[in-house]
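User: Okay, second chain of the day. Same drill as before: sequence in, structure tokens out.
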Amino acid sequence: MIYSVKARYIEKKMGEFYQKLTDGTIQNQKPDGQEIINSMKRAKITEPNVIQWSEMCFCSTPLKHERETVYSNFLTDMETKVIDDYVEYEGEFFMDVLAKQNKEQPV
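Assistant: Same drill. Structure tokens below.
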């Protein structure tokens, strides 16, 4: 099924989230790592500290494994709704914002 997902991101954990999204940690996770990466590339910031995206998942509980392994560490107030196809939301790309924030961080 394809879900529309809306969640608040935990601002203080975004550096760690970005690192795991870009260093292969999440991508190498089986069975859903690549879908999480693709989903975060689709995610848009639709209001302050809120992102929305579309994601495919075959769990009986929507995004169960993704929440247990990744999302619950970095996101809160996650809402899911079944939709027919992927949706592109209005807003700035989440990954672009994370990339910019992480380039501005002193090493």
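Residues 64-74 form the longest helix (11 residues).

User: Thanks, on to the next one.
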